Prior knowledge:
Blueprint (H helix, E strand, L loop, with lengths): L1 E2 L3 E6 L2 E6 L5 E4 L1 H9 L6 H9 L3 E2 L2 H20 L4 E5 L6 E3 L3 H4 L11 H5 L1 H12 L7 E5 L8 H14 L5 E5 L8 H4 L6 E6 L3 H7 E3 L5 H12 L5 E8 L7 H10 L12 E5 L10 H14 L6 E2 L3 H10 L17 E4 L4 E3 L11 E5 L5 E3 L21 H4 L4 H8 L10 H13 L7
Parallel strand pairs: 6-8, 6-15, 8-9, 9-10, 10-12, 12-13, 13-14
Antiparallel strand pairs: 1-5, 2-3, 3-4, 7-11, 15-16, 16-17, 17-18
Helix pairs in contact: 12-16, 13-16
Amino acid sequence: MFINPLLFKTIHNGQSVIVSLLGGGIQSIPTEIYRMLFSNPGLLPEDYITHFEETEVLFKTQQNFFTLFNEYINKTNDKTQNSPLNIIFTLTYGCNLHCEYCFQIRQNSHKNNMIIRSDLTNKSQKIVSQLEGLSGHIKGTSNIYLYGGEPLRNDPYLYKNAHQLLKTFSKENDIFITTNGYDLNHYFSLLSQYSNLNIQVTLDGPKLIHDRRRKAKDGGSSFEKICENLKRAKSFNHNIMIRINVDEENYLSLTDLINHLDQLNLFPTNKLFEHIYLAPVLNRDKIEINLQFYKTFIDYYFKHLYQHNIKVSNLRALDYAIKLFRGDSISPSKYYCDALYGKYIIDPNGHVGICEEAVLNQNQIIGKIDSKGDVEIKSNPWKDRSVDNIKTCITCEFKYLCSGGCPWKALNCTGNVQSFICDGFKEIFEYSIKKMLTINYLEI
């Protein structure tokens, strides 16, 4: 018999808990069964052998395990390779707010108010078709993103370029707009001409906290204006998501903000929580992480927000733990993100990059677009970054969930995109599992 090597093991209330990090599945078993499983599985009672085989803990042979392992990995690879290409048009690096933690501030790109060349939006269909062909993705299926800076800033040239992209792609492609919502009112006449756009608006807490963090350049309250725009935008047939950046300063105010949003009646009854997600702020400039904050945030999340099924992005160790407990499938992968296989960033000058977090960094620029809309692309220097190629990760049971960590952070902090970045994955995953075990009692 062969034991799945991709198992997470812990103790809770005198019971041994094992989690399959391949296909998912979490179970609590008596300690004596646990010891027998890992010392001499052949002595297990027949019903336990059957159960462990059905739950992918135990395999008749090592080959059986690797056959299933390859099925899972290939399924994920097929899903990623056949998923729509993400093409992000950075309309400007300029912004109408001044958020001190924003990566644009770190890169000084917020000072660059240049607006995207009009030839890039006028020739956008030709550009996208070429990028789809170069990447091997199915033509006409790409997701189109309007990004910045602030892509919906009150500016006639930005308006013209946004209009051109919406007109070009709204019928055939899914469109995503990342906006702070501050000048959204200036785009209502444009947005009313389309339906089913995906619009992300960011709030950072109740009024006092949000206005301190996301400062309007005119000195007014950005919170009040954004909330007013959200109320007016609900009359349009668009999918609006509210992103809440979370860190040490604002996490204790999350319930206050959510209660305020509920009172605004922005969404149909009982639908608010489907339109909110939390984004713990990650520092991609240094390797060290504030593990204590993440644990404190997890405590708060499970006490106040877990029951509402509010999604958490960025903190994938917590996300995987939640999926396991809710019976959702997990997707083990060799690749950390779509920058490795399915994303292009087009900046205002026509440079083509692969990561929106790495704005203006020459190490992620892989091509350029001329005034005729012709695309020239070099090879993606990140495409060979698979967790299987990172030596430090070889023996780690979490490697196909962590996937070696963020490649941009690896490059930014170590100078080598092939290095690993754990970001406390194991510690956060274990802490989350133990927290959830206090909510859900499991037994075999």
